[in-house]
Structures are given as C-alpha cells and as structure tokens.
Design brief:
The protein is α+β, with helices and mostly antiparallel strands. 34% of the residues lie in helices and 15% in strands. 22% of the residues are buried.
C-alpha cells in the first residue's frame, strides 16, 4: 500500500465528487463512498493504464455538527474512522474513500459525549463498513 505525498488529502472538489457517488457500503450510522482514481491523461499518446495497488489511496471524513453536536463526540468518531482506515487500507483499492456520518447516535443510549460504549459502537460499525468495502460483492469493488 502506498499513499499520496504528505499533505495531499481530499480537497473540496474531491469531497463533492465522492459524495455525488452512491454509497458502496452502509451501516446504521455511517456510509462509505468510493471514487476510483481516474486514469492519468497523457499527451505522449500512451494508453491510460488501470489503477494498481501502488496508486494513491486517499481518505476523508464527514462528521456534521447536526449529527454529533459536541466536539468531543465528533473527535471520537473521527479518531475511530481514521484508525479503521489505517487497519484496512492495505486491502482497499486505489482511489478516494469518504466515510460519512449519516445519522446521529442516540443520546438516550449514549448519554456521555465520549463514553467507552460509544467508542466500541463506533469502532464496530467502522470495522464492519470497511470489511464490506473490500469484499468482492460490494459496489466498491465493481467500480
């Protein structure tokens, strides 16, 4: 697995493009979007090549304030998302990956903003999401 040069993450236009695609994997609270890398255009007449494992993997997170009101909760979700990404990045295809929080966690079930129960729940969902992402039957792999 290789990564892009340091500091080369998803920009605003990349987020828009990734969000315009259909989510390739979903859980109760999260959606994972995948945007394959477009082949590099060449002016030398070479035919574009298909993306390989050596190509760039990029990751982004969308955790809206309306779904996680407290900054502590947003930070917890982002940390768990990044950790899940790092654990599974070696098995994912090159391209742009975007993890989006699509619904809030129940305040009644998780009253503390950063409880261990919330941490375990977020980690379990992120793990199942990335596990779905690199199975051949998901939309992520058919792109």
């Amino acid at each position: 697995m290789s990564r892009c040069a340091a500091g080369q993450g998803l920009g605003a236009a990349d987020f828009e493009r990734a969000l315009s695609t259909r989510a390739c994997a979903r859980t109760e609270h999260f959606a994972l979007h995948y945007l394959p890398q477009s082949p590099k255009l060449s002016t030398t007449g070479e035919t574009p090549r298909a993306p390989t494992v050596e190509d760039c993997l990029r990751f982004g997170l969308v955790v809206p304030k309306r779904h996680a009101r407290r900054a502590v909760t947003r930070s917890l979700i982002k940390r768990q998302g990044r950790a899940g990404w790092l654990r599974h990045a070696g098995a994912l295809r090159a391209g742009d990956w975007l993890l989006r929080l699509r619904s809030p966690f129940s305040v009644a079930q998780f009253p503390s903003a950063a409880s261990n129960a919330l941490r375990r729940s977020v980690r379990a969902e992120v793990e199942s999401l990335f596990a779905k992402a690199h199975t051949p039957t998901t939309q992520c792999e058919r792109c």
